[in-house]
Amino acid sequence: MVRRLGVFLGLVSLIGMVGSGCVSSTGGATYSREQTRTEMIVREGVVVSVNEVKIEGTPGVIGGVAGGVTGGLLGRTVGKGTGKDVATATGAIGGALAGAAVEKKVTGRNGWEITVKLDSGQTIAVVQEKEPGEVFAVGDRVRVLKDPSGQTRVRK
After folding, report:
1. d(CA 66, CA 99)
2. Which residue stretches of the chain are H helix?
3. What is the 8-class DSSP label of residue 34?
4. Is the pLDDT confidence value at 40 over 70?
5. For 102-105, which contacts have Cβ atoms below 8 Å and span 24 or more sequence positions?
6. HSE of 37 in the Cβ direction (CA atoms, 13 Å)?
7. pTM for the whole structure
8. CA–CA distance from 44 to each of 36, 55, 88, 115, 154 (Å)?
9. Crossing angle, helix 61-76 and helix 2-20, to 10 degrees?
10. CA 44/CA 69 separation, integer angstroms
11. In terms of C-beta density within 10 A (0-12 exposed, 13-18 middle, 19 or more buried), how is residue 40 classed?
12. What is the Rg, in whole angstroms, of the alpha carbon atoms belonging to the chain?
């Protein structure tokens, strides 16, 4: 029983790591397949402020299911009879909530809130994920790209 539980927990952990790697980027240099070969509106301007922000993660199915199954299996090892059933159910519910919370935390990202004074005189702010090597500073000349769906990004 203990060996099976260990193997199962290992598989659940592997699935969780693979699943969390599937989270798409919201950085300025990352485009979805749908955004390729699509005309974008390009505006230019100057960065007037840059703030570091946290982009909230997404609680998904993988964390909740993995946590629920793990919690249920662990709860099943406690007690006998009705007590064992209650421990199993409690473990499954608690595990599902904990798993979803962990997945939300793991999928959160660091980002920038970039405020740009456009050449037109309009001031806009864009929040996007930090990309490696991409740094914005006050006074930087930037391009602001907006695709047909309204998604906007700031690029140097």
Report:
1. 7
2. 2-20, 61-76, 81-107
3. G
4. yes
5. 102/63, 102/67, 103/16, 103/19, 103/20, 103/57, 103/58, 103/59, 103/60, 103/62, 103/63, 103/64, 104/56, 104/57, 104/58, 104/59, 104/63, 105/57
6. 2
7. 0.58
8. 21, 25, 58, 12, 9
9. 170
10. 51
11. middle
12. 22
* pLDDT range class, residue 29, cuts 50, 70, 90: low
Q: What's the pLDDT tens digit per position in 45-59?
A: 999 999 999 988 776
Q: Which alpha helices (DSSP H) does 21-124 contain, by range?
A: 61-76, 81-107
3-state secondary structure of 83: helix
For residue 101 the two structure tokens come to: 């919370």
Residue with tokens 């960065």: 47
Residue 2 has pLDDT above 70, yes or no: no
Query: What span, in angstroms and rounded, lies between the C-alpha atoms of 6 and 65?
Result: 17
Q: pLDDT tens, 75-103?
A: 778 777 787 777 777 777 887 777 666 66
